[in-house]
Structures are given as structure tokens and as C-alpha cells.
Amino acid sequence: MTATQAARGRRTLSAADAARDRAIAWWLLACAAMIFVMVALGGVTRLTESGLSITEWQPVAGVLPPLSTAEWQAAFDAYKQIPQYDAIHAGMTLAQFKTIYFWEWFHRLWGRLIGIVFLLPFLWFLLRRRISAELAPRLMLLFLLGAFQGVLGWWMVKSGLAHRVEVSQYRLAAHLGMAIVIYGAILWVALDLLRPARHEITPGLRRGAGALLALAFVTLIAGAFTAGLRAGLIDNTFPLMDGHVVPPAWGHLAPWWRNLFENPEAVQFDHRVLAIATWLGALALFLASFRAALSRSARGAIHALFGLVTIQAALGISTLLLVVPLPLALAHQLGATLVITAALVVRHALGAAT
Predict the structure, then answer these.
(1) Sequence-ordered alpha helix ranges (H) in 49-134
(2) CA-to-CA distance for 77 and 75, rounded, in angstroms?
(3) Alpha helices, H only, the chain
């Protein structure tokens, strides 16, 4: 059965089945909202240099923070043993350590809460046979991806505990990318349940929206490399990079592909190019929507997408020119997630491929 045939079959859902699907969809949307908050917490943790403050991974015992002065001192002493302490936080007090510890602990705690909020309703719906045989494996896969994301998070943190003063930019990009993939997949399933019948017949716009969604995701990953290399702290001019269209240091690393991931100037340049391409793609989709026969909701989603991409571009430029102030940097990261959200909603609104 094709996706289109499945969608057509779903149009005859009974009122009870429709109510069941709505309940599942709202539960999934709540999970997606929690992941959105998780991305924000990850941004705060990174921007406050808090991510390496907990040097152990204890999935169960780590639910509770240190509860005594001795436990706090032991955690602080463990942090003093890693390179980041001497490089960035040397001389900090125990009270200051508790602040950065809080953000990493809360970030991990929130991840555990997402797992609980996903798993318990899933089991309840499953035991009451509210989840179809087609949907159950998809939801189980999402849960397994969420569990893998926890492992991926520790793998990222572990890269910064020896020989480095920050986590690997490769692992940072992988961790953020997986979070967005899980977020997008949950959102897509929820939209399928809420709007199973999609009548837009716009293959050109549909392909354009899919390409724009992919481009926005690649731009977000490039942003993760920019953050991981602290590349936003250099070449703080726009539109040129300290007077150059292409930075002279772009190809300094060999082999050439290392510049894409390890050369700060090249990484920032690539992120700029991808961001401009994303804005131009959103503009093209926006203009094309006026000539297409679209529903009001689909047209409104496209217009909202263009507005969000424009705001995100302004946030990115401002963050660069002001040398990455924390509030703007966090807003820029959240803006990237909102752009992905809007692009996914647009792609969904334009119907399934035949």
C-alpha cells in the first residue's frame, strides 16, 4: 500500500478512531515540545561552559544531584581533574561550580523525563490497544532512538574529559543532529494523525519544500560545527569576512575536506553560505506560493516559514556582529529549531508524494 492509499483509507476513520488518533497526536506533540526545551537547555549548557561539569554517566543514580557538602566537594574535585577546569574555570568557588553543575544536571534530568513521558503513555496506549499495528513499530523505533540519544550525549561529553577543553565538534553535531531528527520524526507522526487527509496537488512546491527542509537541517549542523569550534568569535563582520568574500585561510588544512569541519574560518564561511541559501530558498517558496492553488493553511505555513527564516538570519547576523552574547546565541539556536519545525510543517501540508 502506498502512502497516498494509506492516507485515503484513513479518511473513513470512525469518530472513535479519530478521537484515539487525536489523543496519541497530542501526547506526541507534548513529547516534541519537551525535546524543543531540551535543545534550549543544551544551548544554555554549552554557552555557559557547563557541559563537562559532571564527569560520570550514572543513568539511575545521577537523577539526584549531590546532597551533602562531601558529595559536592567530591564532584568538584572530579571536575578539577579535567583540562577544562584549568583552561576556563580555574579558581572558581564551590558555589560557582554548583551553578554550572545545575545546568548539566538539569539537562540530563530533562532527558530522563522525556523518556518517561514517552514510554509510560506508549505502554498505556499499547496495552489498551489504542495504537495500530502500523504505528506501534514506528513509536518503538522513536523510543529506541531516544535511548540512543542518551548514549550519544555521554559519548559527546566523554570527548571533552581528557586532552581537550571542550567536546568534539563532530560529536556535538551528531548529538544535536540526532535530537532534531527525533524531534522532526515525532512531529511528523503527530501531524499524520491530526491531518491524515492532505489534498494539496503541488508536486513542484512539495519537492521545493523537501529540499528546503534538508537545506535547513544541513545549515543547522553547520551551525553546530561553528559553535563547537567557537568560530563565531572570529571574523565578526558582515557581509564580508574581515574584508574578504572567502576567507584566505579557507583551504589551509589538508586534506581539503578537513576545512569543512576543523577550520574555524572555513566552517563559519560555510555556515554563512548555507544560511543565505536557506533564506533564498524560503524566498523562492514564498513567491511561488502566490501562483499556486493552495489552501489557506498551507499558504499561511509557507509565509510563516519565510518570516521565521528572515528572523533567524537577522539573529545570526546580530549574534556574529556582537560577538556571540549568550541571549542572542541561545535565540539563534532556538530559531534554527523553529525553522526546522516550520519547514517540516510546510512539507507535510503540501501532501504526500505519489
Answers:
(1) 69-80, 83-88, 94-127
(2) 5
(3) 3-10, 15-47, 69-80, 83-88, 94-127, 135-158, 169-194, 203-228, 259-262, 264-289, 296-321, 326-349
pLDDT in tens, 68-102: 999 999 999 999 999 999 999 999 999 999 999 99
Joined together, the cell numbers standing for residue 3 give 502512502
Q: How many residues does the chain have?
A: 354
- Give the HSE-up count for residue 128: Cα atoms under 13 Å, Cβ half-sphere: 9
Alpha-carbon distance of 104 to 236, in angstroms, equals 29
pLDDT exceeds 50 at position 8: no
Q: For residues 231 and 265, give the distance between their C-alpha atoms in angstroms, rounded to a whole number.
A: 7
Report the amino acid identity of residue 150.
G
Q: If you ran DSSP here, which 8-state letter would residue 241 be given?
A: B
Query: Which amino acid, 27?
Result: W
CA distance 232 to 330: 13
Q: How far apart are CA 123 and CA 117, in angstroms?
A: 11
Burial 313-342 (b: 16+ CB within 10 A, else e): bebbeebbeeebeeebbbbbbbbbbbbbbb
Tell me how far apart the alpha carbons of residues 173 and 180 are, in angstroms, rounded to a whole number: 11
Q: How far is CA 348 from CA 195, 216, 244, 342, in A?
A: 9, 15, 40, 10
The model's pTM is 0.92
Whether 199 and 118 have beta carbons less than 8 Å apart is answered as no
- Concatenating the DSSP letter of every residue in 33-51 gives HHHHHHHHHHHHHHHTT-T
The domain locations on the chain are 16-196, 199-354
Task: Compute how many other C-beta atoms are within 10 angstroms of the C-beta atom of residue 39.
Answer: 17
- Under a CB-based contact definition with an 8 Å cutoff, are residues 240 and 338 in contact? no
